[in-house]
Amino acid sequence: MNTPILNIIDGTPIAPDGSETWQIANPARLDLPSRHYALSSPEQVDLAVAAAHTAQKIWAETSPMLRADLMMKAAALIAERQEELALLITREMGKPLVESRGEVGYAAKILQFYAAEAQRPRGETLSSGRPRVHYYTVREPIGVIGAITPWNFPLSIACWKIGPAIMTGNTVVWKPSPQHPLCSQALMQVFLDAGLPNGVVNMLHGAVDAGSALVAHPGVQGISFTGSSATGEAIYQTTSARLARAQCEMGGKNVLYVHESGDLQTAVTLAIEGAFRSAGQKCTGTSWILLDPAIADPFIEAFLARARALDVGDPELASTFLGPVADVRQFTKVCDYIEAGIEEGLALSCGGLPAAPEMGYFIAPTVFTDVPATSRLAREEIFGPVVAITRVADLTDAIDHINTGTYGLSNTIIATDLGAIQKFSRKVESGVINVNLPTAGVEMHAPFGGWKRSGLGAPEQGLKTLDFYTHWRSVAIQSPI
After folding, report:
1. What is the DSSP annotation of 137-148?
2. Which parts of the sequence belong to the Aldehyde dehydrogenase domain (predicted)?
């Protein structure tokens, strides 16, 4: 915890000098000293944007193959430093070490994926309706990208924004969440050690002041944001008003629906994984379970037994399934939802309000059963290890429950009935549909984005995201012969 917390602007470590401060602590070891550090000022945002703007002119002219080579080196360094990076994630935000290792590996693969895209054609050759006209298209970078990333995936979300941005010739000003400054610095060190030129990626520790300055900055041509719906909607309005681009991946109230044809053990296992991995702190995590009448009672009995048996504790131990939530803010928020459920008179069947934290911000798997669809616990994003279970009449009723909500990110059906699967996949208003898979889980080559209050702008990941980071240019050349 004694490592200096520094910004990286134009390749140079610079101490944050803003008026905002942040406190960090190991969320599983509150007996260890906590630490306050300064966040960045709007003036430092100006410096970072200026550095990115200067670097972008040169970076855009750099061979895509050279860009790819540097990204492959960065990916190799991430893989080489997997244990060091995973331990930082676990100690800064509480994710069990086995999950942290998985995140580090995924981050490396993301950079590899986008590096490989440098070898693909960057445009098209088209036929023209005019004689002797050669018509083609090319992609061009849009300029400086502001990347604003959350605390729940400190490395992988940063890489799936930075990777496609720099591969297409843009430069980046990255404002990571203040909860994990050492993770962010470690990733920046990877880019520097890989030989990325100064100014191509700049990193600023910050919260509201730095984030607002970055979003409003006239020198930033695009903002890629992951976080809450309220913040994402405000960012989209601000950037649109100044004719810049915004890509916002936001919240979710993700449903796992168990159809009467579904396999009970599969349903229970996937519900446990989706609801309680990472202490439920995933935008795609399972937060609401809908059950057909025929399977409701056996599912609830088996699910509660599994939830009560989960190992909650030290995230550095291999046996731990569920570690702490990320910090005191998250602990307070999740406890407030549990208290609201109790005050609402909902049936608390597992877990409940924890005692005041002494050793860490631990919250046991908490399950409310027979929750009405009008309850806050059935409609609002909790972002913690808390699940609401509701019985529905049938498939149509389940779809109605989902579609009347304000979110549309990732929803699952557990079923073997092909007709039910097809109807769910067609009718549910959601950016991601899963069949006999958990609600949580993405793949780097597939577009990822939500509907309604879960997403605005172009999707992330895959090749579709390249449309966000590039302009299309059409070129028509009249041949003299």
Report:
1. EEEEE-SEEEEE
2. 19-475
Pick from 122, 226, 159: nearest CA to 459: 226
Per-position DSSP letters for 58-123, written without gaps between them: HHTTS-HHHHHHHHHHHHHHHHHTHHHHHHHHHHHH---HHHHHHHHHHHHHHHHHHHHGGGS-SE
Q: What angle do CA 198, 458, 378 make, to 5 degrees?
A: 115
Given pLDDT bands bounded at 50, 70 and 90, which one contains residue 298?
A: very high
Mean pLDDT of 219-231: 97
pLDDT reading at 481 higher than 80: no
* Burial (0-12, 13-18, 19+ Cβ within 10 Å), 477: exposed
Alpha-carbon distance 258 to 170, whole Å? 44
Query: Domain spanning 7-250+454-476: which CATH class is it, in words?
Result: alpha beta
- Average pLDDT over the chain, rounded to an integer: 96
pLDDT at 1 over 70: no
The residue written with tokens 């980046």 in the block is 172
Q: What separation in angstroms does the CA of 80 have from each of 84, 185, 391?
A: 9, 16, 48
312 contacts 320 by C-beta, under 8 angstroms: yes
What average pLDDT does the segment 263-284 reach? 97
Task: Express as a percent the part of the chain with pLDDT over 90.
Answer: 96
CATH topology of domain 254-435: Aldehyde Dehydrogenase; Chain A, domain 2 (3.40.309)
Q: Please, are residues 53 and 208 in contact by the beta-carbon 8 Å criterion?
A: no
Using an 8 Å Cβ cutoff, are 247 and 149 in contact? Answer: no
Rg (CA), the chain: 23
Token pair, residue 443, equals 């793949």
Please tell me the least confidently modeled range out of 117-126, 154-163, 173-182. 117-126
The tokens of 153 are what? Answer: 């995936």
The ranges of the chain annotated as CATH 3.40.605.10 are 7-250+454-476
Please, where in the chain does CATH 3.40.309.10 lie? 254-435
Q: H-helix or E-strand containing 455?
A: strand 455-456
pTM, full prediction: 0.96
pLDDT in tens, 173-210: 999 999 999 999 999 999 999 999 999 999 999 999 99
Mean pLDDT of the 253-272 span: 98
Which residues lie closer than 8 Å to 22 by C-beta, 6 or more apart? Answer: 36, 37, 39, 178, 179, 181, 205, 207
